[in-house]
UniProtKB/TrEMBL annotation:
It is an enzyme of class 1 (oxidoreductase). Keywords: Amino-acid biosynthesis, Cytoplasm, Diaminopimelate biosynthesis, Lysine biosynthesis, NAD, NADP, Oxidoreductase. Pathway: Amino-acid biosynthesis; L-lysine biosynthesis via DAP pathway; (S)-tetrahydrodipicolinate from L-aspartate: step 4/4. (S)-2,3,4,5-tetrahydrodipicolinate binds at H158, G167, T168. It comes from Paracoccus siganidrum. NADP(+) binds at R37. This is 4-hydroxy-tetrahydrodipicolinate reductase. GO terms for cellular component: cytosol. Belongs to the DapB family. Catalyzes the conversion of 4-hydroxy-tetrahydrodipicolinate (HTPA) to tetrahydrodipicolinate.
Length: 269
């Protein structure tokens, strides 16, 4: 059987280049397209050469319709605006859309739900095994501890990251809220800056650090009286996200339309 053909969007980006390197080496999937935004300097060039290596036989394109039509899956780590446009095209092509992009608002998520009526969408704010295990642990610990234990999620990322809190921090916050039988919308603490009020009991707070080349670090702090429990994940290599995304694209090949996440892919449900 032929290996599924995969298109990578945001081909010149941090995640795009990591995905392309792994796909060019893969025995299970093949790179069939590389997309960038119109006007990007790499458009028209061979992706392997643009990345400073050997020719890969795939030209970077800014014309998504024919590129996606030739693929079984699209792996997309770009921006919310770009991902919403790709969701429509990927749904029309009935291909699997793996979405790593973060920073969506409620309206964006409704649009993704609509696209998933036509083809599978697998979306996660973090595609690594470690973080998806941490989500389950966070839910469990939050359920075991009473609301006198304050929950704070602290995350750190590189200086180029544009969204905060990170997608991962929001996944962890949602898991903590679920553990307490609520939604994050109900428990999320407003951002703190200047003179604010004291912390309200049962709320879940977020703090974000941005600097240098930090790949991604997340602490879920459960702060009680006289003791503190900290659950931590540290990413040191973006390959963990890219490997998860490729695994998701392969897993999705025999799935029907619908919305899935990495818990489905990893069998953690
Ligand atoms: N879910 C995860 O596991 C995970 C892991 C890492 C990053 N991310 C998320 O992935 C996204 C990208 O991260 P990054 O560090 O690679 O960013 P980046 O800025 O390095 O790359 C984004 C790329 O997308 C390109 N782009 C923008 N609009 C486009 C369009 N219309 N078509 C094609 N390409 C387009 C940009 O030119 C850029 O090359 C962010 O939202 C980030 O939070 C998620
Ligand atoms: O580098 C990024 O950007 C990352 N984004 C994801 C998030 O928002 O949590 C995952 C970690 C890296």
């Amino acid at each position: 059987m032929e290996k599924p053909g995969i298109v990578v969007t945001g081909a010149s980006g941090r995640m795009g280049q990591m995905l392309i390197r792994l796909l060019l080496d893969s025995d299970e999937a093949r790179l069939v397209g590389a997309l960038e935004r119109p006007g990007h300097g790499w458009v028209g060039r061979d992706i392997g050469e643009a990345m400073g290596g050997r020719p890969a036989g795939v030209a970077v394109s800014d014309d998504p319709v024919p590129v996606i039509a030739a693929a079984q899956a699209v792996i997309d780590f770009t921006s919310p605006v770009a991902t919403l446009a790709y969701a429509e095209l990927t749904a029309q092509a009935r291909a699997v859309h793996v979405i790593g992009t973060t920073g969506f608002d409620e309206e964006d998520l409704h649009q993704l739900t609509a696209a998933a009526r036509h083809a599978p969408i697998i979306r996660a704010g973090n595609m690594s095994l470690g973080v998806n295990l941490l989500v389950g642990l966070t839910r469990k610990v939050a359920a075991a501890l009473g609301e006198e234990w304050d929950i704070e999620v602290v995350e750190a990322h590189h200086r180029h990251k544009v969204d905060a809190p990170s997608g991962t921090a929001l996944m962890l916050g949602e898991a903590a809220a679920e553990g307490r039988g609520a939604t994050l919308g109900e428990l999320r603490s407003p951002a703190r800056d200047g003179i604010t009020e004291a912390r309200s009991t049962g709320s879940i707070g977020f703090a974000a650090i941005r600097g240098g080349d930090i790949v991604g670090e997340h602490d879920v702090i459960f702060a009680g009286q006289g003791e503190r429990l900290v659950l931590r994940h540290v990413a040191t290599d973006r390959a963990i996200f890219a490997r998860g995304a490729i695994r998701a694209a392969l897993w999705g090949q025999d799935k029907g339309p619908g919305e899935y996440d990495m818990h489905d892919v990893l069998g953690l449900n």
